Amino acid sequence: MTAVTWSGSRDIRVVEVDRPALAHPEDVILRVTSSAICGSDLHLYTGNFPKGSMTKGDILGHEFMGKVHEVGDDVKNLAQGDRVVCCFDISCGRCDACRHELYTLCDKSNDSTAQERLYRDKSGGYFGYSHLTGGWAGGQADYVRVPFAEQNLLKVPSEHERHGDLDVILLSDVLCTAWHACEMGNVSKGDTVAIWGAGPVGILTAQCAQHRGAKKVLLIDQEKYRLDFAERRLDPRSLVTLNGRQHQHDGGVAKAVRGVLPHGPDVCIEAVGFHYASTLLHKAEMSLGLETDPADVMNEIFTTVRKGGRVSVVGVYLGYVNHFNFGCFMEKGLTMKAGQTPVQRYWKDLLKKIENKDLEPRVVITHELPLEDAARAYQIFNDKQEGCVKVVLHTRF
Ligand code: NAD
Ligand code: ZN
After folding, report:
1. pLDDT at residue 283 in the model
2. pLDDT at position 51
3. Superfamily of domain 2-173+341-394
4. Fold of 186-338
5. What is the pLDDT of residue 288?
6. In this model, does residue 110 exceed pLDDT 70?
């Protein structure tokens, strides 16, 4: 079968490999029809990951969907031919973490000791996302093995043409992540919300915040084309966009946000991640020697958010982050929540919202390419070429 593999920093290779086989009675083998590239994949693509956590030939991809091809003996609610979306993380559905709906912290899906060293605790396993998160093969391929299939696959209706792959594929991750960002920030009717990052996650977070009745939504990025794109896709009545680059020399983003909301936003959401933000990673662990970026998103958030406000972090961070203004966090009495998204907590409700046209995640998809063109797809998404916001890869089935 054809698969998209990591071969080094900025080195994506589409190769022929053996098809996966059922390895456990709770497995499904999925015939993938579409997969997406996530901002999280860019951390792997650019090599901003702990040394040794990726191996040449690792199959990438954690946002994908397709048709059930083979079913393990213990899988009762799925049959060959069912159309399903797969969630990005792998959870068992039965352990202590899963019983508390903390699926991305599942005890059973990841036994990496490297992960334990880095976080001092284990996170769950993810498809196609390094040996830190279980070393599971990803879904940017013709076929993929899905463990604990009843827990990790969501059946989607096949009968309606309007439920094309583009309508539902983002339930695998970024739509649920956008919703999770709003849930963690408790975004409610009448709130003012500022979102850092106008990538697929940030734009969909803005869409979800508008759906939840936010009075004003500020979307902040440094790429003008992404803000222009967001303005065309979101409800203009409550949207304000801010280009961080334009405010570099006039007091910065924090001052610009206060210009719109003098008391500060009720909720600030981080949808950027360490890939860009000014983080000094613990070098002994990370062996990366990263250059810091002048933009310091978390501290912009702490100084901007209103007193007693809420901070929600879905942008991915790894290891130690220094120069964190903990004093500001404490003195302003802030609440902060962060985490990888427990997709299964939300995806059934969000599927209904898509069916009712309350949410329309496909608006962020700008590019569709064949799986074979994955190297180019990673490049245009990472380098922000051709107005790219979100890429979906299609297999040739
Ligand atoms: P993306 O890379 O397309 O978007 C990030 C955006 O941030 C870009 O548009 C970039 O221009 C912008 N940016 C960079 N520096 C900035 C700054 N200083 N201020 C404001 N904006 C800035 O990625 P994405 O797919 O939208 O994902 C966003 C983040 O969410 C990534 O870190 C990704 O790893 C993370 N993520 C988390 C989860 C989760 O479960 N928590 C799931 C999916 C993605
Ligand atoms: Zn993702």
Report:
1. 39
2. 74
3. Medium-chain alcohol dehydrogenases, catalytic domain (3.90.180.10)
4. Rossmann fold (3.40.50)
5. 43
6. no
**pLDDT attached to residue 162:** 46
Cα 42 to ligand 1 centroid, rounded to whole Å: 10
235: which 2 tokens?
């409800």
Written as six digits, the tokens of 64 are 């994908």
For ligand 1, say whether the CB of 170 is within 6 Å of any of its atoms: no
Q: Is 271 in the pocket of ligand 1 (CB under 6 A)?
A: yes
- Cross-strand pairs, 66: 32, 84
Q: Model pTM?
A: 0.93
Closest ligand to C-alpha of residue 139 is 2
For the chain, the domains span 2-173+341-394, 186-338
CB of 133 within 6 A of ligand 1: the answer is no
Tokens of 327: 């004093």
Ligand 2 geometric centre to CA of 367 (Å):
16
